[in-house]
Amino acid sequence: MLDKAKTRLLGAVLVLASPLLAAEASAERISGREALAVMRAMDLSPELGTDSHGDPQIEFMIEGLHARLNFYDCKKQDGRCGSLQLETALDLEDGTSLRAANEFNQKYRYVRLYLDHEMDPYLQFDFEVLHTDAKSHLESQIELYGKLLRDFKDAMGYY
């Protein structure tokens, strides 16, 4: 059993640690509104909506392309999500080849190029915001995605 002094010490430690734990917990996930604010500050013309599951979804412009930010691993009680996906597609007149898609996928590790039924390419980039400052991490991932989109457009001959 804990004596009175140890109980008080444990209580003091918990009181001091609780704001730190609360701050860490809030930094581990991001809501649609928080992501919208980050994207507005980046001048991406974001529009917040919801997907078919009721999770946040943001449509925006980047590198001259329409794109979407999809939210996954969302907690219903607070609307904060732990996984995000950036997604963009190109509508090419004649589509692209499996070879071009495979070459792109071999070159890049964290992004995947897929082909639709018309052989038009679309790109998906997944990342988590757990155990980090979610807002700063989102900004850095969008900046990285912009660089990947430039390479994507070059590889697909989209100018």
Automatic annotation (TrEMBL):
From the UniProt annotation, give the residues forming the signal peptide.
1-22
Top-level taxon of the source organism: Bacteria
Q: Which InterPro entries match?
A: Put_sensory_transdc_reg_YbjN
Q: Which is an annotated Pfam family here? A: YbjN
Q: Which UniProt keywords apply?
A: Signal
Q: What is this protein's name?
A: Putative sensory transduction regulator
Q: Which organism is it from?
A: Pseudoxanthomonas taiwanensis J19
What lineage does UniProt assign to this protein's organism?
Answer: Bacteria, Pseudomonadati, Pseudomonadota, Gammaproteobacteria, Lysobacterales
